[in-house]
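Lecture 7 notes: from sequence to structure.
We start with the chain below.
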Amino acid sequence: MTSKVSSPTEQADEAVVGEQRKPPGTKDVRRLDRVIIRFAGDSGDGMQLTGDRFTSETASFGNDLSTLPNFPAEIRAPAGTLPGVSSFQLHFADHDILTPGDAPNVLVAMNPAALKANIADVPRGAEIIVNTDEFTKRAMQKVGYTTSPLEDGSLDGYNVHPVPLTTMTVEALKDFELSRKEAERSKNMFALGLLSWMYHRPTEGTEKFLKTKFAKKPDIAAANLAAFRAGWNFGETTEDFAVSYEVAPASKTFPTGTYRNISGNLALSYGLVAASRQADLPLYLGSYPITPASDILHELSKHKNFGVRTFQAEDEIAGIGAALGAAFGGSLAVTTTSGPGVALKSETIGLAVSLELPLLVIDIQRGGPSTGLPTKTEQADLLQAMYGRNGEAPVPIVAPRTPADCFDAAMEAARIALTYRTPVLLLSDGYLANGSEPWRIPEVDELPDLRVQFAQGPNHTLDDGTEVFWPYKRDPQTLARPWAVPGTPGLEHRIGGIEKQDGSGNISYDPANHDFMVRTRQAKIDGIDVPDLDVDDPSGSADTLVLGWGSTYGPITAAVRRLRTAGDRIAQAHLRHLNPFPRNLGAVLGRYDKVVIPEMNLGQLATLVRARYLVDAHSYNQVNGMPFKAEQLATALKEAIDG
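Predicted structure tokens for the same chain:
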């Protein structure tokens, strides 16, 4: 979407219902400042596609938005069961928002399992649209309903809209030469059409998408278009939906620019491509598919025109080995994975530390340990990133805070890797990877210059006057060693995992040399230039600081806004650089009586902060596979302020 708007204004993350109006000859239209919709159904019902299309049209309309896809890890759980429920939540507004929302205002439940799995999150008075065709006795018994929730009064506190979605979809497609089963597959498009009517979403983009997606199957494309339009027309004509809703564009939220909707993994992919262009280096990805990182491999494989090479390896170890070889050969090298893959890659990360070559290791964190919760989010790899290698093998760590911020985090990780000749760990997570939000496409001249100078010739003179190349002769400012592309005449040198002699790079077992090299590698990481930590403390008199990292930014900021709106004084700071920490972090922590660190783990950043700065930081932790809710955090932070 393209938007020309003014500077952002901070608004409370609260819903306000505006005036109701009724133009002549139409249904009532009610204006809202924000809405939270959750589509839920069986894994085969197309809820992720439905949510994605609704999100794309919402982005093109100009709303601010945040999404939360949620789906099972099973390739295909039994149809109609609770483990097989897939959902997609979208929060969109006419102002700046930060989270996918705590609770849906609208739940679209495609079957009994979807209703039962999600009803606990739906507040009383919310709207529930149910596909009545799926509420058969057998389907209800499968999820533990002894009586129909549509008839036993258990939903009396909600505005329930019973809609025979399956029947109406099949009826709308009766003129198409499709079997009933094939026709039923389009019921998600019927639901999308109905919701598009309810919230005045544009339709052109979805219609174009369907024509493109099914270009080789024109009958399927036509059927989906017909179902989509039938859903829209049903909303327009039925008496059951007497009101539609308008959520105006977020005209005062974004700086002037060109915007698009983007997910975290897509933003990371674009950031890597941009970094390679700004460095004037080919981009090489050595990767093994793993949830939730695989989308980066899929996306980068599309961009050979930008000099991107992707290698799908036979395992995680081969993936990072190939990437490290590409780094030795002069490429901007990347490997992508999740927590289990980082464990397998740890030896090669240590080799990259020893070789002192630039390498980006991107960890899209998920629930653990072991296989854990592959499709759920967690922040539990921080200590693994910090210490998960044998020997003293320090590695810089960078963490994005929002889906769009993944682009900038990728650029920053590349800057550090290229400048300091070191592997860098980038810690995203499933919430950022799959979630989406508007992103302002930067101008090329806004991007940093990442160009590097390869070694060209001898850099050291021996006592006898001979000029030689020393692969471990360091830059006095960065302590980075020279980057010599293999095949350059006169720059032949030895590489490998055994300790190097300072300067010459020859194999060395000398104790004093090993001590010096270990301390030098640590000093190089400690000396990385990172920005000071910014603190948001409007009153300047807060006693409590909430410190976060990574994807907790949205929920923390929404919670802090709520507390400030209620009159509480609280400061907020969010870390992008976790190794090394910003140089002013200790001073910042010392200014506050109380420090609260919310994390989706059991207190890993809090452990580091306590050990490094001797601060009695209080942890607030959650490891249920879902992001924090703003109200939940606001309650916890209020207790900290008052305690």
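Points to note: The chain has 20 helices and 26 strands. The two ends are 46 Å apart (CA to CA).
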